[in-house]
Amino acid sequence: MPLYSKKVIKCFKNPRNYGKIKNPDGIGKVGNIICGDVMWLYIKIKKTKKKEIIKDIKFETFGCVAAIATSSVIADLAKEKTLEEALKITKENIINFLGGLPPIKLHCSILAIDALSEAIFDYLSKEKKEISKELQGRHKKIEQEKKIVEEKYKDWIKIEEQAHQDNKII
């Protein structure tokens, strides 16, 4: 039995929504120090009278097959959704869309969810809009994990951030 489903391989080889958005409304950056995956998710919001919709979403992911595939899928699932709908996307939605992931790669679906949550949190913060207690809790958990990683690997993070700013892959 192959390690990855055909859908995972397809999303990895031909990821949709890859790249940066110029002047994004929100940016989510998350990483997993165990596997080394890092995801950036950029969102552009369209405001209507009654709701805010994710009009455009792009990602940059430095990681494994599953990390790139889950980044592509979260972007597909969140595009054209309201912020509330996007926040309801689950790791199970991503895993089911991909036809499954190996157990050791399930954390990639959580990273993708976290990246989207952080992008929406960033947008709401910048706009000084109300942030739900659930989203505040997610953000706090991600920030706590990030602080541990940043302290432990501060020298590597400086190099990685500079390479990202310079658009270089290291």
What does this structure look like?
By secondary structure, this protein is of the alpha+beta class. Helix content is 51%, strand content 16%. The protein has one domain (6-165): Alpha-Beta Complex (Sufe protein. Chain: A), CATH 3.90.1010.10. It is built from seven helices and three strands, in the order αβββαααααα. Strands 1-2-3 form a three-stranded antiparallel sheet. A hairpin with a 6-residue loop joins strand 1 and strand 2 (38-47). Helix 1 (6-13) packs across helix 2 (65-78) and helix 4 (91-97) crosses helix 5. The longest helix is centred in the C-terminal third of the chain and has 20 residues, at 107-126. It is globular, with a radius of gyration of 16 Å. The mean pLDDT is 89.
What composes the largest sheet? 3 strands, antiparallel
Number of strands: 3
Distance between the ends: 33 Å
Report the C-alpha radius of gyration, rounded: 16 Å
Q: What's the arrangement of strands in the largest beta sheet?
A: 1-2-3
What is the chain-wise order of helices and strands?
Answer: HEEEHHHHHH
CATH class descriptor? Alpha Beta
Task: Just name the CATH architecture.
Answer: Alpha-Beta Complex
- The amount of beta strand, in percent, is 15-25%
CATH topology: Sufe protein. Chain: A
Mean pLDDT: 89
Number of helices: 7
**Overall outline:** globular
Given as residue ranges, the uncertain stretches (5+ residues, pLDDT < 50) are none
Task: Give me the secondary-structure topology.
Blueprint (H helix, E strand, L loop, with lengths): L5 H8 L12 E6 L6 E10 L4 E11 L2 H14 L4 H5 L3 H7 L9 H20 L6 H20 L1 H12 L5
Antiparallel strand pairs: 1-2, 2-3
Helix pairs in contact: 1-2, 2-5, 4-5, 5-6
